[in-house]
Design brief:
The protein has 110 residues and is an all-alpha fold. The protein is built from 7 helices and no strands.
């Protein structure tokens, strides 16, 4: 993670200083049609500068994103902390778990 943070800082500085893409970046800001489909989709959502950061960090890498943003351990801890004795249905809905799963998580904490 530390390596990625250093690399990210360098890429951001390069983008901010106009060192990445130069003239091409100025052209792309007005017309994203020159980008490959996936980069065009990303640029339309988060902007060209952020897309360049992603490109420079990960180009050529196969990336698969997990279905859940947060780790299982983090969610289990949140469920345990938020449980008030009567809110299993609400926790199940909030975290997209079944009530049975919530009970299993709570039971494993004892």
């Amino acid at each position: 993670q530390c390596h990625l943070q250093r690399r990210l800082r360098g890429v951001i500085m390069s983008v901010n200083n106009g060192l990445i893409g130069g003239r091409e970046v100025k052209l792309l800001k007005n017309d994203l049609s020159g980008l490959n489909d996936v980069y065009r989709d990303i640029a339309e959502e988060i902007g060209l500068e952020n897309t360049l950061i992603i490109f420079n960090l990960f180009h050529g890498t196969q990336i698969s994103f997990p279905n859940r943003l947060f780790s299982k351990e983090y969610i289990h801890k949140a469920i345990i902390n938020e449980y008030d004795g009567n809110n299993v249905p609400q926790l199940a809905q909030k975290y997209n778990y079944s009530e049975r799963s919530i009970w299993r998580i709570l039971k494993s904490n004892k």
